[in-house]
Amino acid sequence: MEILIYKISGCGYCQKIEELMARANVEYQSFVVGKDITRDEFKKQYPSATAYPYTIIDGVPIGGLVETVKFFVEKGLVKSNKNSN
Fold first, then answer.
1. Which among 5, 16, 26, 72 could bridge 77 via Cys, Cβ 3.0 to 4.6 Å?
2. Which residues of the chain have pLDDT under 50?
3. What number does CATH give the domain 3-74?
4. Distance between CA atoms of 57 and 45, rounded to whole angstroms?
5. Are 69 and 78 in contact (CB under 8 A)?
């Protein structure tokens, strides 16, 4: 599975997505928008992206932190912390 994460400096959600990757024990590549790729290049490549972090898995845009967590739970890569009561 190829995971690409686009993030910005000082973003709390971007830090949380890296914690998610560690929890799932998966490898990923991260890019800092404004440093590794320009904001214009990022927007041209992913025009539907509206926030950071932005995750791409196997070439498919997943979305932000919430969408990535949902994807990981659905695929069984992490377990939901929700109580089943």
1. 72
2. 84-85
3. 3.40.30.10
4. 15
5. yes
| Tokens, residue 32 | 């800092």
The whole-number pLDDT of residue 85 equals: 46
Contact (CB, 8 A) for 35 and 14:
no
At residue 81, the pLDDT reads 72
Q: How far apart are the first and last CA of the chain?
A: 33
Strands 29-32 and 3-7 come out as parallel
User: 56: how many CB neighbours lie within 10 A of its CB?
Assistant: 19
As a whole number of angstroms, the distance between CA 11 and CA 16 comes to: 9
User: What number of other Cβ atoms are within 10 A of residue 8's Cβ?
Assistant: 17
